[in-house]
Hints:
Mean pLDDT: 93
Order of helices and strands: EHHEHEHHEHHEHHEHEHEHHH
Distance between the termini: 30 Å
Radius of gyration: 19 Å
CATH architecture of the largest domain: 3-Layer(aba) Sandwich
Structural class: alpha/beta
Helix content: 40-55%
CATH class of the largest domain: Alpha Beta
Shape: globular
Amino acid sequence: MNTYALFLGCTIPARVQPYENATRAVLGKLGVRLVDCRDFACCGYPLRNVDQRAFLFSAARNLALANHLGLEMLVLCKCCFGSLKAAQHILRRDAAARNDIGRRLQEQGLRLDADIEVKHLLSVLRHDVGPATLKEKVTRPLTGLKVSAHVGCHALRPSHITRFDDPVSPRIFDELVEVTGAKSIQWDTKLDCCGAPLLGVNDELSTALTRNKLDMASKAGADHLCTACPYCQLQFDTVRQRLREGNDPPDVVPPVLYPQLLGWSMGIEHKLLGIEKNAMDPVATDAI
């Protein structure tokens, strides 16, 4: 049985609880054990361009806590994943920063380990659990369902740091979608930003980017747009709801989290997957 220290970050517990619920339900059925660490805190991302040492300390403290548990980290948020990987990259190469952060951690009884394994949920499912095992657990294949897989930015770039997938032609997410029996379709804006980073800065541009992705997914024939990042899910969910309340056509493609999609195919109850908390049509959900 694989065991990981589950890193939820800040956004998921506060705003995207279905991501956690569905992940626990799916991994539980796959025999993957998750260990909760209440001392995990912010990954440091909000401070990356404000105070690098504060960013590094926040990230390194989480890495040290996982090291104390003797476990690899399983991360759900792609922003947190990219942030922790970036901190590792800096700490491995900057001796002064590494020594400074190490001393600060020692004051808390922790030991810095910049080489602790940090893995995103999709990587764990693809590489550690494996497609063959996933297919064995699929009891209700989503045959006929067309899905647009939105990979997101932070897991792909910078690719030499995240080492998640090919940044130009990623395939992991598509393969995982198709494990469920659904078809992962190709669409023109697959690698484009969801627009979330601009929300609150330039709402008009943010919404335009999101709307364009939703439009392209719809034109490609998608029934659902699949995400594996809380920020992307929130952006698509929120903007889609706003568009439907306006003068836009009512058939805007509904977003769904990957563990929810996988959970459907595994026959897990919608309630355990948090489906009722998604801003999507009950009719579309029941049709799956």
